[in-house]
Amino acid sequence: MNRLRTAILISGRGSNMRAILEAANATDYPAEAVLVLSNRPEAEGLSHADRHGIATAAVDHKPFGNDREAFERAMQVVLEQHRIEMIVLAGFMRILTPWFVAKWSGRMINIHPSLLPKYPGLNTHQRAIDAGDAEAGCSVHWVTEGVDQGGVIAQARVPIRPDDTSETLAQRILPEEHKLYPKAVRLAALEIMQRSQPAI
Ligand code: GAR
Fold first, then answer.
1. Where are the domains of the chain?
2. How many whole angstroms from 13 Cα to the centroid of ligand 1?
3. For 4-195, CATH number?
4. From the CA of 80, how far away is ligand 1's center (Å)?
């Protein structure tokens, strides 16, 4: 089976990355995880990926200061070295420039802990609680120029309880992310492969 060479980009813990690596162990999974890349060399997820036998790389954003595109060009070199065909952002906490987004248009997805289009950006859990919402959740979406604005691929919902804090709500959503993201990666990979098939 043809599988897309996939990079998972992380900034920290990497629990979503773990869920995807587990799913990608199956040989009939359409995404093959070949690289885990972090903008933080100390990201916990890197050592897990390493133990899992996946190539890892760190491109520290700090030396690039405010030059986001220079940082991304350094990432792009690594992505090309590994012949990456799809990018999965999993807790990657850098805003991407139009240059990078255009380069990976239709081939890069992200998970966000809200029911998009509600609450793009930061502090999503607290914002859902403050708004008095009855439910919250997570969304996997295509990455486009506007932060968390791209087309939604899949969502999962959880109730918000009256005594919830942002921490308890995040704890309730996270296991749903771990179930949702591997399914959404599969859908996205299949869609990308279908798109790149020549018309008959
Ligand atoms: C996840 O909850 C993910 O949805 C969120 O960061 C966490 C990363 O956890 N992403 C964002 O907020 C992106 N805007 P993980 O490193 O354990 O996967």
1. 4-195
2. 9
3. 3.40.50.170
4. 25
